[in-house]
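hey m, so remember when u said the C-alpha cells were messed up on ur end? i reran from scratch. heres the input so u can diff it against urs
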Amino acid sequence: MDTKEEKAAAVNRRALIYRGRVFRLVRENVTLTNGATADLDYIEHPGAAAIVPLASPGEVVLVRQYRHALKRYIWEIPAGTLDPGESGLACARRELAEETGYSAARWHSLAEITPVPGYSDERVFLFLATELSPVQQGLDADEVLEVHRLPLAKAIERIARGEIQDAKSICGLLLAATHPSAGG
C-alpha cells in the first residue's frame, strides 16, 4: 500500500534524451532504496483523460481509430492528452465533443490509472459520461476514426474475445459496467 513514508529513489543526474510533440524521454541516474545505482529511462507524459460515454442506459459510444504505432485500427473509448494546466475533467469534456460529437450533462469519475508504470509517468483519468447531447465534432488533423454505438454488454464481450485490447478502454468499460449509472 502506498504511504507518504515510502522512500523514493534518489536522483543523481538527469538528462533529456528527446523532446517530442506530446512527451519527453528522460534518463535519470538514480540510487535505489536498496543502495544500487542505475540509469533508468522513462517517458514524461502530461497525462490524459478517457471517457465511457453512454448514449442511453446500457449503450456505449466507442471509436474505431487508426493507431499508427500498431499500423491498424483499434476499438477504444474516446480519450486525449491533457493540455498544460488542464484538469482531467476539462480534458474529458473537450475530448468527448471533439472525437464523438457529443457532450454530456452528467459526469462520474471512475478511476485514475497508470497504464505503463514500467516506462512512463502517464496517468489517465477515467470518466463515465451520461445524458449525451449532439454537438459539433472537431477532429484533429491526425485523428482518423469512426464513431459507433453498441450495447455495453457487447463491448464487454469484445474485451473477452480480444477484440478490444486497449488498456484504458478495458479498464473504463469494466468499471462502467459495474457503475450504478450505467443501467442496461
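this time it looks ok to me. The helical segments are 88-100, 152-160, 167-177. if urs says something different then somethings off w ur setup not the seq
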